[in-house]
Automatic annotation (TrEMBL):
It comes from the Bacteria. GO terms for biological process: bacterial-type flagellum assembly; bacterial-type flagellum-dependent cell motility. The lineage of its organism: Bacteria, Pseudomonadati, Pseudomonadota, Gammaproteobacteria, Alteromonadales. Pfam families: FliS. The gene is fliS. Keywords: Bacterial flagellum biogenesis, Cell projection, Chaperone, Cilium, Cytoplasm, Flagellum. Its main location: cytoplasm. SUPFAM superfamilies: Flagellar export chaperone FliS. This is Flagellar secretion chaperone FliS. It is found in: Cytoplasm, Cytosol. Belongs to the FliS family.
Length: 142
């Protein structure tokens, strides 16, 4: 009973955080969520809880696909194209980890994701505001 209460509290807290978050914060929350699901899948592999592993990897994969598919490739940015390819690679590797029950592959993907998340967290406020303004102007032009 206590665990359900904690889960409900976490879910409510997450909804509140999302309702007040800017796009940068939402992306950071998604990255953190992907890392958490990968860590949970890794623990499931270690415990040989394969149903749980599959569930966590499915959620991590869905988050990575969402992050990949929200990259604006129309801007023809090398960084955007490289990030898209990296997310795509991580999705494929999570599929491999799921099939092979591989902790090594899980570590590989986690070690690819961590620097992206850490760099994202370090983006200065001025750069975020500049990006939001550019997006707003782009929408108005359409």
């Amino acid at each position: 009973m206590g665990l359900k209460g904690i889960q409900a509290y976490k879910k409510g807290s997450l909804k509140q955080d999302l309702s007040t978050a800017d796009p940068h914060k939402i992306t950071l929350m998604l990255m953190q969520g992907a890392l958490e699901k990968m860590a949970m899948a890794k623990g499931s592999i270690e415990r040989k809880e394969f149903e749980s592993k599959a569930l966590h990897l499915s959620k991590a994969t869905s988050i990575l696909v969402n992050l990949r598919d929200t990259i604006d490739l129309e801007m023809k940015s090398e960084v955007g194209e490289n990030l898209y390819a990296l997310y795509d690679y991580m999705v494929r590797r999570l599929t491999d980890a799921n099939i092979q029950n591989s902790l090594k592959i899980m570590d590989e993907v986690i070690n690819l994701m961590l620097p992206i998340k850490n760099a994202w967290a370090e983006i200065p406020e001025s750069a975020k505001q500049e990006a939001y303004e550019a997006q707003r102007q782009k929408r108005q032009a359409v």
